[in-house]
Amino acid sequence: MQDVNSLTSVGGSIRAIIFDLAGTLIDYGSCAPAGAFVELFEAYQIEATMAQAREPMGMHKKEHIRTMLEMPELSRQWEDRQGRPWNEHDIELMYQDFIPLQLEALPNYGQLIPGALDTVTALKKQALSIGVSTGYNHEMMSLVLNQAADQGLVPDAAACGADVPAGRPAPWMIFQLMQTMAVYPPESVIKVGDTIADVEAGLNAGVWSVGVTCTGNMLGLSLEAYEALSPEDLKEKNAEAGRRMRQAGAHYVIDSVEDLPDVLHHIKERIIRRRVNL
After folding, report:
1. Residues 148 and 268 in one domain
2. Does residue 185 share a domain with residue 130?
3. 245 in Cβ contact with 196 (< 8 Å)
4. How far apart are CA 252 and CA 197, in angstroms?
């Protein structure tokens, strides 16, 4: 892996990195939100699997609930339990019920992902602006950012779905962070995240989009579960996760943020070639 501290000239063409939080910088496996969604649906007597809870991950949490309810199996269970189809009022009630469940879970998943602090610290030393975006609301985001700060990781700017007209895969959080950090053009920005919605948001914003597989939602495994995988299982699961992210349009796919330095050099070279060919 390329030493991030050797990136002395990257700042000339890449000016900012925008990271997702859970599963990318903090909470290995993005376990806090997935578990809270399963618990939420259980409270409504609906059996949602972890796979179903993870499928819309990266969206604003209210839209996440809507997307789960639109799944035929969960929609059928709702009608069986409630005797009617779900509606917008139900989504709002479920979202309000979700908030305390998520806030209660977050303190248990506040450990930075290995390598995240070193990578972000080194990038900031290269005069790169660091932003974070998240599907959490303000209260949740503040809690997570405080946990990260206690471990030494402090971004230059942060945005959540409540700050913009629509969360991921819309590009608005990225644009807001670019404005806050006074960074442009989109070519100079890299979006890094562990969900398909992250990848799509980066593409919709016209920035470089980098997908993360091993540490987040795509594998959906805690650090302990990840380390317990056999090499064969890990290779298979990671290959499938990478395939899905590339299919979604990711410019690059990495195992974790520790691998980002190599990507920065590739992107810089592509920017230089693009400018030469203008």
Report:
1. yes
2. yes
3. yes
4. 15
- What tokens were used for 237? 């699961």
- Phi and psi, residue 274, nearest 5°: -65, -40
Over the stretch 123-182, which tens digit does the pLDDT of each residue have?
999 999 999 999 999 999 999 999 999 999 999 999 998 899 998 999 999 999 999 999
User: By 3-state DSSP, what share of the chain in percent is helix, strand and coil, each rounded to 5?
Assistant: 55, 10, 30
Residue with tokens 């400018």: 275
pLDDT digits (tens, 9 = 90+) for 18-33: 999 999 999 999 999 8
Domain containing 94 — which CATH number? 1.10.150.240
Can you give the residue range of the structural domain that contains 8? 4-31+111-276
Catalytic residues: 20, 61
Distance CA 3, CA 260 (A): 10
Answer with the residue of higher pLDDT: 265 or 78.
78
- Rounded CA separation 16/190 (Å): 6
Put the strands of the sheet holding 252-254 in their side by side order.
Answer: 157-160, 129-134, 16-20, 189-193, 208-212, 252-254
**Last residue in a domain, options 108, 139, 160:** 108
> Backbone dihedral region of 143: left (phi > 0), alpha (psi from -120 to 50 degrees) or beta?
alpha
Q: Nearest CA to 48 among 31, 65, 63?
A: 65
Query: Based on the domain organization, do 118 and 64 belong to the same domain?
Result: no
Residues 139 and 186 reside in one and the same domain: yes
What CA–CA distance (Å, rounded) separates 6 from 208? 21
Task: Tell me which residue has tokens 């969360």.
Answer: 167
